[in-house]
Amino acid sequence: MPSQWSGAVATDAGSVALAQWWTTFDDPTLTGLVEEALHSNLDLHLATARLRQARAEHRVAAAAGVPAIDASAAAQRSRAAAGSEDTRQPPGNAYQAGFDASWEIDLFGGVARSREAALAAVQSAEASLSDVQVSLAAEVAQTYINLRTQQQRLAIAGENLAAQRRTVELTRQRRESGFVSQLDVASAEAQTASTAAALPPLEASARQALHALSVLVGREPAALVESLSAPAAIPATPPAVPIGLPAGLLRRRPDIRAAEADIHAATARIGVAVADLYPRVTVGAGTGVHAVHPGDLVEPWSAFWSLGPSLSWRALDGGATRATIEVRKALEEQSVLSYRQAVLTALREVEDALVACTKEDQHRVGLEAAVAANREAVALASRLYDAGETGYLDVLSAQRSLYSAEDALVVSTGATATHLIALYKAAGGGWGADAQETPPGRP
Fold first, then answer.
1. Considering the chain, what is the average pLDDT of its residues?
2. Which of 78, 161, 251, 259 is deepest in the core (most CB within 10 A)?
3. Rounded to whole angstroms, how far apart are CA atoms 19 and 242?
């Protein structure tokens, strides 16, 4: 692991700001949506069900290491077959009840390794559940930011459209008075129509974001349309992200912890396969009563018992056991490679997010300056036009530049928040191995 990030200086990653990073945006609506998704999302419920399955399978594997006791009882009436020497005997009854016990002595570790593999599978399922939670929180936040971005773009487009319509009316009046030509009127109408045409795609994007948010929180697509349709500002981004050192990803990233647990399980399954090369030793015991009359079952002479070990060994299997061992070793090698790839991917995602955050912030600062300059240009062009010192095309060009700059600034503001969310996710934001509180929706 590298000692430091190339794009930033590491800060403490053990704070609540990383554990529940969405609260740092200081947006109650965003916080509520994330918490609702962490309780109600169906993918999260699916991961929880898989965790319950893994825990049950671990209990099954653990039960193989303790004695098994079977109880039985039978009542039977029978007669010997025709032609035998007992043909003349009348039908008779037989009654039996007893207990049988067996216990496999784990001399070569097969049972213990099976329990170990099942426990590692539980750890992998727990980490996978955390991974779903981390991804879900990030997806909800990014979708919410997209919704607010589209709403802000719609608001800017609507304001520009209203201003352009007023300009069209003023231009028509000036045309009637002979101060401007029909070209100015046509140019103003064309600009207004172009701005109006940009509204439907933005409205569609905003509605689709609403539908996506509704499904993420486990509701029908139109459930949030009424409550979230009103425009709101894009949440302000926090000043810094506690990303920690690169080595900290090995503990915080749930996908890396899941890959590590998969290696553990694969290694333990090699031990299970190796144990099949050796004999199995089982100790068995049985006791019970047998009689031809129910009342005789309580007599001492009706009791029977047995006790003794047994040994079984697959002496010849055509090489199947050794081939199984090779299969298990190949699976372990694949798990190790998957782990290494998960680590490299995590490092790349953090570095990418750091670069994106830094450069987008610089982009946004430049756009803020561009918006301020374009507003001054529009005001100046309008004054010169009113004074008859310039043509309407100059005004139109300044208005077009201002609208483009304002729209780009809103997009950049949303992108800044989106890149920051990606950085939180890449750094393992959500719940890591050292999380103190149980996350919502967790069993």
1. 86
2. 259
3. 10
Q: 150 or 1: whose pLDDT is higher?
A: 150
pTM value surpassing 0.70: yes
- For residues 34 and 140, the answer to whether their CB atoms sit within 8 Å is yes
What values do phi and psi take at 389, rounded to 5? Answer: -95, -5
> Do 24 and 421 touch, CB atoms closer than 8 A?
no
Task: Let me know how long the chain is.
Answer: 443
CA angle 54, 59, 64 (to 5 degrees): 125
Q: Which residue has the higher pLDDT, 439 or 38?
A: 38
Query: In whole angstroms, what is the distance from residue 119 CA to residue 293 CA?
Result: 50
What SS3 state is found at 307?
A: strand
Q: Mark residue 391 as left, alpha or beta (left: phi above 0; alpha: psi -120 to 50; beta: remaining).
A: beta
- Residue 5 contacts by C-beta under 8 Å, 6 or more apart in sequence? 243, 246, 350, 351, 354
d(CA 239, CA 198): 33
Task: Find the DSSP H helices in 21-74.
Answer: 28-40, 42-63
427's CB contacts (< 8 A; 6+ apart) are 13, 18, 241, 242, 243, 244, 249, 252, 350
Indicate the helix (H) or strand (E) that contains 377: helix 320-386
Which residue shows structure tokens 């081939």? 323
State how far the Cα of 375 lies from the Cα of 390, in Å rounded to an integer. Answer: 17
Task: Round to whole Å and give the CA distance between 239 and 363.
Answer: 16
